[in-house]
Amino acid sequence: MHNPAGLSPVVAGAWRLAEWGWTPQQRLAWIEGNLDLGVTSFDHADIYGGYSVEALFGEALALRPALRARMQLVSKCGIRLVAPARPDHQVKHYDTSVAHVRASVEHSLRSLRTDHLDLLLIHRPDALMDFDELADTFEALRREGKVRFFGVSNFAPHQLAPLHRRIALATHQIELSPLHLDPLHDGVLDQCQDLGFRPMIWSPLAGGRIFTADGERERRLRQTLEAMAAELAVSVTTLVTAWVLRHPSRPLPILGSRRIEVAQAALAAAALRLDAQQWWRIWTASTGQEVP
Ligand SMILES: NC(=O)c1ccc[n+]([C@@H]2O[C@H](COP(=O)([O-])OP(=O)(O)OC[C@H]3O[C@@H](n4cnc5c(N)ncnc54)[C@H](OP(=O)(O)O)[C@@H]3O)[C@@H](O)[C@H]2O)c1
Q1: Is any atom of ligand 1 closer than 6 Å to the C-beta of 131?
Q2: Ligand 1 centre and the CA of 26: distance in Å?
Q3: How remote is the CA of residue 109 from the centroid of ligand 1, in Å?
Q4: Rounded Cα–Cα distance for residues 50 and 188 (Å)
Q5: pLDDT in tens, 14-51
Q6: How big is the CA angle at 239 (ends 279 and 276), to the nearest 5 degrees?
Q7: Rounded to the nearest whole angstrom, what is the distance from the C-alpha of residue 38 to the centroid of ligand 1?
Q8: Is the CB of 119 under 6 A from ligand 1?
Q9: Three-class SS of residue 151?
Q10: How remote is the CA of residue 15 from the centroid of ligand 1, in Å?
Q11: β-strand 79-80 against 93-94: which pairing, if any?
């Protein structure tokens, strides 16, 4: 399994950063707290916070620019939101044209106050995606030193393969958690393993729903997770992360908490290897049925 962009075993997700309402100093403390733990990769997208998060991060980074050398910056492009920051967008849509990808990368670089991205992902598969044009765009961005590695997010295997045949991708960023099992069964994780990709996992805690949602499924799952966490003397966050990490593709989970102790609990999962029975117990609690 490869990790060419050198991502850390746990990645810090910046999606919610604007919601936290922090000062630049508080944002810097979050960045430094993660770095000090060994969470050195930060996951962004042009659209996060209605196109505001990258600049909030860059503003904090500007307080201590030397930190850039200690981190990997990941961003995404390809979605055009209807937002006050983009008054010309009349309908939410996807755009993987050379013009949009280039403009988005330049915007990310300026906002993050950096001269290169370590990894750029296409955020969602675009029905109008021209594989040749996109591969050429990636190649040019690499030649210019603006982006080191490329990948995709939320693609089906048949959408990833044609792009990967044209230009070597580094990873696939996907949703996986005990409340989102699809990639275990739809071929996405099989493809990651086959290609030697270590998938980046978004919302490994189901965006907090593991702890807070109170549907029948979530309550059943939570009961099992809490019982197992007590048996294993770990936190539910550590247990859920260990469940994600147990996949042979060697996933890289992206945690989205404002609290550094959540990243710490996720890192602790490296020391907890679940056996097959423990892993399937969580799967069974989630689905509400035993395997056939
Ligand atoms: N590629 C894509 O399409 C895509 C889509 C979505 C996200 N992402 C990436 O993935 C990253 C992670 O996503 P995520 O934020 O959904 O991940 P997550 O780690 O599953 O969820 C984080 C959320 O869970 C809450 N939480 C954590 N522990 C909790 C607890 N014990 N009790 C209650 N709530 C708790 C956090 O709140 P606190 O802050 O209060 O701890 C936070 O709001 C994002 O930042 C983004 O970078 C990518």
Answers
A1: no
A2: 18
A3: 24
A4: 29
A5: 999 999 999 999 999 999 999 999 999 999 999 999 99
A6: 15
A7: 19
A8: no
A9: strand
A10: 8
A11: antiparallel
Out of 30, 48, 197, 202, which one is annotated catalytic?
A: 48
Residue 76 CA: nearest ligand 1 atom is 1
Q: Give the model confidence (pLDDT) of 263-281 as tens digits.
A: 999 999 999 999 999 999 9
Residue nearest to atom 29 of ligand 1 (CA): 208
Does the reported pTM lie above 0.90? yes
- The residues that bridge with 120 in the sheet, in sequence order, are 75, 150
**Number of Cα atoms under 13 Å in the Cβ half of residue 187:** 7
Which atom of ligand 1 is least distant from the CA of 206?
20
What tokens does 199 get? Answer: 């998938």
Phi, psi of 291 (to 5 degrees): -65, 150
86: helix, strand or coil: strand
Residue 77 CB less than 6 A away from ligand 1: no
User: Could you tell me which residues come within 8 angstroms of residue 76 by beta carbon, excluding any fewer than 6 positions away?
Assistant: 44, 45, 46, 47, 120, 121, 122, 123, 153, 173
Domains and their CATH numbers in the chain: 11-213+247-270 (3.20.20.100)
The terminus-to-terminus CA distance of the chain in angstroms comes to 30
171, β-bridge pairs = 151
How many beta carbons lie within 10 A of that of residue 176, not counting itself? Answer: 25
Pocket test for ligand 1, best of 257, 261, 267 (most atoms within 8 A of CB): 257
29: left (phi over 0), alpha (psi -120 to 50) or beta: alpha
Residue 166 has pLDDT above 90, yes or no: yes
Active-site annotation holds for 51: no
Q: Is the pLDDT of residue 182 over 90?
A: yes
Closest ligand 1 atom number to CA of residue 16: 45
Check pLDDT > 90 for residue 1: no
Compute the distance from residue 137 Cα to the ligand 1 centre, in Å. Answer: 31
